[in-house]
Description:
The chain has 2 domains: 3-76, no CATH class; 95-229, Immunoglobulins (Immunoglobulin-like). The protein contains 4 helices and 13 strands. The chain has helices spanning 19-25, 47-52, 54-64, 194-200, and strands at residues 3-4, 67-68, 95-99, 106-109, 114-122, 138-144, 148-151, 160-164, 167-173, 175-176, 180-189, 207-215, 221-229. A 6-stranded mixed β-sheet has the order 4-13-12-6-9-8, with no helix packed on it. Strands 3, 5, 7, 10 and 11 form a 5-stranded antiparallel β-sheet that branches. A hairpin with a 2-residue loop joins strand 8 and strand 9.
Amino acid sequence: MGFLDNTTNNIIVDAVLTDVGRQLLSRNNGSFQIAKFSLGDAEIDYTRIQTHGRAVGIDNISILTPIFEAPTRASLAYTSRLITAADPSLVYLPIFTVGLASGDYVALNEAGAASQITATLEWLGSSTSIPVELQESTFEISVNNLFLQATTTSGQPLPVRYNSGNVSTHIVAATQSTTGASVAFKVAAKSLSSTNFSTYKSSDGKIHTFVDIVGLNTGIRKQVEVIITET
Length: 231
């Protein structure tokens, strides 16, 4: 990971296509069309504004904040997506929680066991509905396909939107309610040979991987750890 040099007060734009974007462009049949773009602020430390005030804090951020080079992996491109809200009085974002069978991670063995994950978007846990610009109708689920398969709650494989490296990404429609939206799916461990398991296991003798859940409208994100043990 590198940094862009901002010591000269010049504005430097480092733009690259992701691996998925390059795959689409390589078709060379006119189907690759840029329809929209989004911006993110993962590197920005907004406590500088609280510490120094708005005017000095903004200047402090622009001069002293190192900016990451543009990543090519789609799963790393945005962790904090900027959104535009029409309501000037809006000061909160929805609460995004993940419900697991037990604990704060998913525990699986590599014999094909599956566990359900439920992610819920709520507006401050009250009966007030989420503002329309912060509503989510679709979620993106990403898993490492070396170790996991994402399925519906009934066990059917989720359709793959695209593969980038060893990451499979799926699109799942949200279940709507009067106070928010939720998405439920399962992850199942893939069977690995003893050699492959030994290659990827950590020092505790287990494989640690993650599931990413992202709202496609607001970019709200949750990451769930999955720990796989060998049978």
